[in-house]
Structure formats: structure tokens, C-alpha cells
Write a structure and sequence with these properties.
Mopterin_OxRdtase_4Fe-4S_dom, metal-binding, Barwin-like endoglucanases, 28 strands, binds iron/sulfur cluster, iron-sulfur, binds ligand MGD, Dimethylsulfoxide Reductase, domain 2, molybdopterin cofactor binding, six-stranded mixed barrel, oxidoreductase activity, single chain, binds molybdenum atom
């Protein structure tokens, strides 16, 4: 305990909700205040791992700039504090008009909403009540190329194949820096320990990244690839596999189609052909291909760097193809499918007829395809700004900062300014919520139970955990799920219906579903779970009807929420186990290695090979104490060169720039200024900046970050012309820019 602190009133377990590692933490509380956060060494998933962000949760929770009561826009444009009743009355006066005009109220839900139980279980109610297809989230600027590749291969965009990192002999990481990000589409807290263990057991780590990142630093081999060329690099690897007869058909599951065709296709892309485009030595491509294909077990893991680039879906498809044709899918040490405790799309029975959740509808203005029930977030601004029938006129944001996370910030902010009515559920008055008419704050973390329903699909080990609320809601606090239900009630035109009634309605549907899954009578399910309310009841229903569930009393010792409450460090159900073919949700129950939609994008890749390679390409870097745009206010940020543009010594010399210069970075659509830092970790031709900064402009309630606003990466990013072809995701990585010394006195 820090000296000077009073006696610790009590401690409690809390799973960290910030990133995909889902570390187990111990909160110390005095009264209602979280005074200290420590890692939980007993946690069965994270075993004592944590990071500065998780340990900073006490600061984040105690940040004096946080919004703790509803805010209403006053006549003069400023915000005033309001009661919940006033806030909902105001929403009740304005929202119904937009619900009556179908689709005119859009919803954007941000990254934290993917973690919390409240939004996981109750957001659907709100979307249903709004009756809108204009639903957006960062998934479409983050993972869609990977989701869609998995959807087309395995039938589910969420239940992805995972690298069995703790047992593999060869790990090929493309476009991810887990020693800083703590990993994504993989829940494996303590990456440093896991990667060290891989090497200690004689395994090999290869990192493909234009930057010698912290992760690349600990690898056996770093492939300093030119941004945007991973698909070609992977084709080069596959060409070696094809021409040197390194594929292992005997280890390829019988449900796989297109094995010969995909290898025949790849054979044309020999290392000598792709190497000059990738900026990589052909011998290195051969060495990686041979190492991967001949290792007892091997797996490739791709993330942000392969998604947010020009050929994202192709790259993520080829990652799976490589793993499959070398005989590494569904085997220990290869790519496996986890079995999430609360179930999910790849544990539930196949819907009949199975239908892929892609391109079922399109956006109004540009006709861009839906994926996984949402439209590409690059459409949000134009759907508001473009007149005509079906225009988005109202917006609800939940736990998101589109003004900083989406491309073309200027257009997004213009849209937020013009939208007729806006409600934000958020704990900060930030670059987005400053345009809201009403802001509704979520309650403190310690009042919320946690089980990561979504991220359990990415866990590299089958562990079930739940940390219950540590505090009751305080006076003036409203649970986030209740906020969502109240908004849904207003949208449904039943604003006076009690939260209890609304929650019972949601639970009644969940009871029927759980009964069906568990194969028992709904009455029995209802009886077994009736003592709980809110997310806890819905979670209990999911756990008990899930793969380890007690089926509401039928399976002795089976999983229940009560069992997890009694075991706050979790329950270990062991390593991932083979799940093919039962895990597949494709229409024909097979894996087609040549999905038409993806293969059709190959000519575009081919055409890119003859392009010149002059000029600088901008990429992005994550920072240890940041979480996208929203921790800069609460957590102290090292300020030296925080938002600097990093450039290699060779490029700096060529551009006649020196360390510390103030520079202007100009993309096709805009320019920003920042400081230059010379950095030897970058491959020449590549410059890097962090995202989520640019805490500037009027009306922010985040005093500390506004004092050090930093440069906004996303003003530079196009939301129109340069999109990934299959999913319409923006291209954040590999953006052509020019960098010049900023003229004196102009900033
Ligand atoms: N500290 C911290 N942790 C975070 C976050 C944060 O903001 N801060 N954000 C969280 C979120 S929302 C996510 S989605 C995850 C993301 O987690 P990761 O997927 O690990 O993302 P990054 O750390 O951005 O790593 C992407 C890497 O791709 C590289 N890269 C850029 N272009 C290319 C390319 O064309 N090809 C290849 N092969 N590599 C390329 C970059 O140099 C970078 O090292 O991190 C999460 N964790
Ligand atoms: N250039 C560039 N742009 C990027 C990325 C990149 O690498 N480069 N990364 C992209 C990725 S991977 C992501 S995931 C997105 C993130 O995009 P967003 O989710 O839009 O942005 P965040 O900065 O994560 O903002 C989270 C918001 O949630 C609020 N919040 C936090 N906790 C809670 C809560 O419990 N309840 C509620 N209601 N609100 C809460 C915070 O105050 C903040 O306003 O950014 C994307 N944008
Ligand atoms: S690694 Fe992620 S989950 Fe773990 S403490 Fe840090 S932010 Fe939280
Ligand atoms: Mo993300």
C-alpha cells in the first residue's frame, strides 16, 4: 500500500475491461473509491500479467474530468448538469420523430462496448427498437478483412481460428505488435512470457512488420516488409510450399476443398517475383516458407497491420490458407478453435438455411456492403451529410469517439455538427460527445460485473471467469444496461414501461433460447435463473446452456454463474481441442480455400505489382499508455516526442530534415503538423505516427489532454477513394504522404 494511504477497506477481483488480454486484477477500495489496482497472480488466464493501463484504472476511475451526471445542451450551446429524469424526458421529446422515419437514427458503438456485459447483452434491444440498419462500429475500421476472410472460410466471422501459441513450434506474426498492444483477436495475457516460452522450448518466432517493433526485437527473424504487401509475401511463401512439395495433404482435414487449386494459383508468385514488391530478400521468403512448412507445428497470426491496408481480406485469407495447406489447422500447436464458455456463433446450431452474414444489404449513398449486421463506418459521415430519402438525421453514440477513430475526421466532425439530434453514452466530454444534445454517463467500473463474452472467442485456453460487481450503484448512478433499456423504451414508444418489465422481456427471450440450447423445459430454466436480474441473469443463462453448462441442473458440476462467483480466479477447462468439422458454419459445412469473393480481388493485387515505389508511406503505432483516443487525459503520457513522426535516418537525410524539426505531413486529402524524430527501427520509405490524438477544438471537457493535444492521424485518411476492395475498410497503413519542414512561425 502506498505510504500515507488510509487503511484498505477491502479488495476484490476485477477483470480488466480495457484490452483483449482481459487480465485478472485486484481492486483495493476505500469507500466507493478505487485506491489501488494490482495484478492478480492467481488468475488462471493472466497469471499476474497486467500493464500500465490496467494498473492505471484507479486513476481513470477517479479522473476529475469524467462525466458523472447526465449533461444537457443548454440554449447557449454549453452543457448543463441534469437529472436522469430530465435527460430521458428530453430524449423522449426528440428521439421518436427519428424512429418514425425508419433508418434515420444511426447508432455507433465503440471499442469499450465490445467488452462490457451491458452492451453485449442489451445493445441489440436498442438497435431493434430504433429499427435501423445504420449501425456502425470500429469493427469495420479494425477487423473486417479478417472477419470476412474467416466468415467465407469457416462460416463465422467471430469464432476465428486462433494460434495455439502455448504449444506451437513456429509462430509467424504479421502486422501485430503484441508486446505493446497485448494482442488482438487473440486473448493471451502475458505475451512476453508466452513468446519467451516459445523460444525456450526451441520454437521459432518470425515477425513481419515494416518496423523493428518490440515484438520484432524478440523474434528470431524480423521481415521488414513494405506496407501493404503481405498478400504477396504470403503468396510467395505458398509458392515455395507448392513448388518444393512442402504441403501436407495427409494432415489437411477432409472437409477442405480447393487444396490443389490454391496451390496452383500460388505457384505463379515465386519469391523472386514478389520479393522486389515486398522489399524483402527472396532467400528470406524461402527460408520462412521452409521453416514454417517443416516445423512439427506452425501457425500464422495476422492483425491490424494486415487488416487496415490495401489488400486486407486477401492477406487474411492467405494466412489461413498457409496454415491449412501445411497441415496445421485444428491441431495442437497450429490454428485451433476455442470453445467459449458462454457459447456463440460457432457453438450454436446452424441456422437453416445457413446464410453468410455479409452483403445482405448496402449503404444508401455509396452502396457499400453490410458485414456482420453493420455497415462500414466510413459511410457514417456521408449518410448524415448527403440529403435525400433515408438520410441519417439523428445519432446515438455508445462508448465511441468516431471524431478521432474514423478516417477523414473533418468530414466526421462536420457530420456530427449537422446531425439534428445526438445522444452519447460516454464518460468524457470529448471530440465526439461535444456535439451531443444529451450525454449519459456509465457508472463506475466497480459497480459492474465482468465476463468477456466476445473475447472468450479469442482465448487461447478454455478458461471461464467472472468478476462480480464490487459496489452497489451509488446515488445518481444508473447501470449502463438500464440506460440502454430506457433508450430502447423511448424508441419503442413505451417510455413509462419499468426497467424491470423491460429486462424481464429480454430475459424471457433468452430463457426460451437457453432452454432450446440446453434441451430442457423453459419453466425449469426460468426457475433456475429467476433470482438474478440484468446482465448477471443473461450471463447465467448463456453459461448454463453453453458448452460447459450445467443445463439448469441436469449436469452435476456443470458451469453456472454461481460456480464462477465461487471461483473468482476462474475455472480451467484445459487447452484448445480439435473442433472440426463441428465448428464450421459455412452453407455446405466445408472449408472452401478458394472463396469466389476473395479470389476475385487477385487481379487488383496483380496490378499493384507494377507500381513504382517512390515516396513515403505512413503507418501507425500504438503506445503503451494509450487506448485508442481515450486514456490520454487520465494517465500521464510520456511527453517527449509523444506524437512525433518517426522517420528513418536515410529518409531524413534525403529530405534534408533533422531530429526535432517541425514537419508538415501531407496526404491526398489533408495536412497535419508535428515534430520529427529520427528512428532506426523503421524501414526506409516508411514513416510512423500514433493515432487517437488531436485533442483540439472548442468545447472539450478533457483539460489535461487538451493541453497536449497532439496531431490527429485521421484527418489524413481518406474515407472515399482508398478503401479495401472487399470490405470497404479504410486504409490506415501504407498511406502515401509527403513530409516537409513546416515554415517558421506558422503553427
Ligand atoms: N497500448 C495499447 N494497446 C492497445 C491499443 C492501444 O491503442 N494502445 N488498442 C487496442 C486495439 S483497439 C487493437 S485493435 C489492438 C491492435 O493490436 P495489434 O494488432 O497488435 O496492432 P498494433 O500494435 O497497431 O500493431 C500493428 C503493427 O502492424 C505494423 N504494420 C503497419 N503496416 C503494416 C503492413 O502493411 N504489413 C505488416 N505486416 N505490418 C504492418 C505496424 O508497424 C504495427 O507494428 O491493440 C489493442 N491494444
Ligand atoms: N489511424 C487509426 N485509426 C484507428 C486505429 C488505428 O490503429 N489507426 N484503430 C482503430 C481501432 S482498432 C479501434 S478499435 C477504434 C476505436 O474507436 P472508438 O471506439 O470509436 O474510440 P475509442 O478511442 O476507443 O473511444 C472509446 C470511447 O468510449 C468511452 N468509454 C470508455 N469506457 C466506457 C464505458 O464503460 N461506457 C461508455 N458508454 N463509454 C465508455 C471513452 O470515453 C471514449 O469516448 O479506432 C480505430 N481507429
Ligand atoms: S494488458 Fe490489457 S487487459 Fe491487461 S491490464 Fe493491460 S489493458 Fe488491462
Ligand atoms: Mo481495435
Amino acid at each position: 500500500m502506498p505510504s500515507g494511504a488510509g487503511p484498505v477497506a477491502r479488495t476484490g477481483h476485477r477483470i480488466c475491461p480495457l484490452c483483449e488480454s482481459t487480465c485478472g486484477l485486484i481492486f483495493e477500495l476505500e469507500g466507493r473509491a478505487v485506491t489501488r489496482v494490482a495484478p492478480n497472480p492467481e488468475d488462471l488466464m493472466s497469471a499476474g500479467h497486467s500493464c500500465a493501463k490496467g494498473l492505471g484504472l484507479a486513476r481513470l476511475e477517479g479522473d476529475p474530468d469524467r462525466i458523472r451526471v447526465p449533461l444537457l445542451r443548454a440554449g447557449d450551446g454549453s452543457f448543463r448538469e441534469a437529472t436522469w429524469t430530465e435527460a430521458f424526458e428530453e430524449i423522449g421529446k426528440r428521439l421518436p420523430e427519428f424512429v418514425a422515419d425508419p433508418g434515420s437514427c444511426a447508432l455507433y458503438h465503440g471499442n469499450p462496448a465490445a467488452h462490457h456485459l451491458d452492451s453485449t447483452f442489451y445493445l441489440g434491444e436498442l438497435i431493434g427498437a430504433l429499427g435501423t440498419r445504420n449501425v456502425f462500429s470500429p469493427a469495420s475500421v479494425d477487423t473486417w478483412p479478417k472477419n470476412v476472410a474467416h466468415l467465407l472460410l469457416y462460416g463465422s466471422g467471430l469464432g476465428m481460428s486462433l494460434p495455439d501459441i502455448d504449444r506451437t513450434d513456429y509462430l509467424l506474426v504479421l502486422g501485430s505488435n503484441p508486446l505493446v498492444s497485448n494482442g488482438s483477436t487473440i486473448t493471451a495475457p502475458g505475451m512476453d512470457r508466452r513468446l519467451r516460452a516459445l523460444r525456450e522450448r526451441g520454437g521459432t518466432l518470425v515477425v513481419v512488420d515494416p518496423v523493428r517493433t518490440r515484438t520484432a526485437e524478440v523474434a528470431d527473424t524480423h521481415v521488414a516488409i513494405r506496407p501493404g504487401t503481405d498478400a504477396l509475401f504470403l503468396l510467395g511463401l505458398l509458392a515455395v510450399v507448392a513448388t518444393e512439395d512442402l504441403a501436407r495433404p495427409e494432415r489437411v482435414p477432409r472437409v477442405v476443398d480447393g487444396f490443389d487449386e490454391v496451390l496452383a494459383l500460388a505457384a505463379e508468385y515465386s519469391p523472386e517475383i514478389v520479393a522486389p514488391v515486398c522489399g524483402v530478400d527472396p532467400d528470406l521468403i524461402r527460408a520462412v516458407a521452409r521453416g514454417f512448412a517443416t516445423a512439427p507445428s506452425a501457425v500464422a497470426h495476422s492483425r491490424m497491420g494486415t487488416c487496415m491496408q490495401e489488400f486486407g481480406t486477401l492477406a487474411n485469407w492467405l494466412v489461413e490458407v498457409l496454415t491449412i495447406v501445411t497441415g496445421n489447422v485444428d491441431r495442437p500447436g497450429g490454428a485451433m478453435f476455442t470453445l467459449p464458455p458462454a457459447g456463440g456463433p460457432n457453438t450454436w446450431p446452424v441456422s437453416k438455411p445457413p446464410r453468410l452474414t455479409f452483403d445482405r444489404w448496402r449503404s444508401r449513398v455509396r452502396g457499400l456492403p453490410e458485414a456482420l449486421g453493420e455497415l462500414p463506418a466510413v459511410c457514417l459521415a456521408e449518410e448524415i451529410l448527403t440529403p435525400g430519402p433515408g438520410r441519417v438525421r439523428a445519432l446515438i453514440t455508445l462508448a465511441g469517439n468516431p471524431a478521432r477513430s474514423l478516417p477523414n475526421s473533418a468530414a466526421v466532425e462536420q457530420a456530427l455538427r449537422e446531425v439534428e439530434f445526438m445522444v452519447s453514452v460516454d464518460c468524457y466530454l470529448n471530440e465526439t460527445t461535444r456535439y451531443a444534445d444529451v450525454i449519459l454517463p456509465p457508472p463506475p467500473l466497480a459497480t459492474r460485473g465482468h465476463h468477456d463474452v466476445t473475447l472468450a472467442h479469442f482465448q487461447v485456453r478454455n478458461v471461464a471467469r467472472y468478476t462480480p460487481p464490487l459496489l452497489e450503484l451509488g446515488a445518481g448512478e444508473l447501470a449502463e444496461w438500464e440506460i440502454l433499456l430506457r433508450l430502447a423504451a423511448i424508441a419503442r414508444g413505451v417510455p413509462d414501461l419499468s426497467t424491470e418489465r423491460l429486462d424481464d422481456e429480454v430475459a424471457a427471450v433468452a430463457v426460451r433460447r437457453a432452454a432450446k440450447l440446453a434441451g430442457c423445459e423453459p419453466e425449469r430454466v426460468e426457475r433456475a435463473t429467476r433470482d438474478r436480474r440484468g446482465p448477471a441473469r443473461l450471463l447465467d443463462l448463456r453459461l448454463r446452456s453453453g458448452p460447459y453448462g450445467d443445463r439448469f441442473g441436469e449436469v452435476e458440476g456443470g458451469l453456472t454463474l454461481a460456480l464462477l462467483e465461487a471461483n473468482p480466479n476462474g475455472i480451467d477447462y484445459g487447452p484448445m481441442r480439435p473442433r472440426l468439422p463441428e465448428v464450421l458454419r459455412t452453407p455446405n459445412g466445408r472449408i472452401d480455400l478458394m472463396p469466389e469473393l476473395i479470389v476475385a480481388d487477385l487481379p487488383r493485387l496483380r496490378a499493384s505489382m507494377s507500381r513504382g515505389h517512390d515516396g513515403l508511406l505512413l503507418i501507425n503505432r500504438r503506445q503503451r499508455r494509450g487506448m485508442n483516443s481515450w486514456l490520454h487525459n487520465a494517465l500521464p503520457q510520456p511527453d517527449e516526442g509523444q506524437c512525433a513522426l518517426l522517420m528513418s535516418p536515410a529518409d531524413a537525410a534525403e529530405s534534408n530534415l533533422v531530429d526535432g524539426d517541425r514537419v508538415t505531413i501531407t496526404s491526398r486529402i489533408a495536412a497535419v503538423r508535428t515534430e520529427l524524430r529520427i528512428d532506426r527501427t523503421l524501414r526506409p520509405g516508411v514513416v510512423s505516427m500514433p493515432h487517437g490524438w488531436g485533442h483540439d477544438g472548442p468545447g472539450l471537457g478533457t483539460g489535461r489532454s487538451a493541453a497536449v493535444p497532439g496531431a490527429n492521424y485521421n484527418v489524413l485518411i481518406d474515407d472515399e477513394q482508398d478503401l479495401e476492395a472487399v470490405t470497404a475498410s479504410p486504409i490506415f497503413y501504407g498511406v502515401p504522404v509527403t513530409v516537409t519542414r513546416a515554415s517558421e512561425g506558422r503553427d
